[in-house]
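Record Adenylate kinase isoenzyme 6 homolog, 178 aa.
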Amino acid sequence: MAQSGGVRKKRERPNILITGTPGTGKTTTSAALAEATNLRHVNVGDLVKEKNLHDGWDDEFECYVINEDLVCDELEDLMEEGGNIVDHHGCDFFPERWFDHIVVLQTDNSVLYDRLTKRGYTGKKLSNNIECEIFQVLLEEAKDSYPEDIVVALRSDSIEDVDRIVSTLTDWVRSYSS
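=>
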């Protein structure tokens, strides 16, 4: 991003981060929003697998151990360009300058529990993610990592919620670009 006199030049098209506990609807929402706005959807979990941006497999949590530096290096040029919807359950390692809007999806614990068990989450992986949602860990992480005025928490319990979120964010993207 071009800097002049310490003021960041506004991108032509915004970058949005959609974050939240696994099971809150990040990928569903991001894909629908990308379709509605013609922004690029970047699913960080898929990117990590496709490009081997990890430090191996964690047997306890049944997931890759993401290499945050490799992910940021991979995304740098794309993010500077703008027009991206980044979908990931973490947010504190991304550079603050990358995002114009941060959306933290939140889901009722009983709904989240059902979604995660349907995905096959059990034991520590299941309880850890439910606790993460109860204690609003991702919302706090977002508020600690980015200016509070660009962070918004939105309820994502149903397909109607997703539709409402996509509509709201589509309006925001349109107003950003005008």
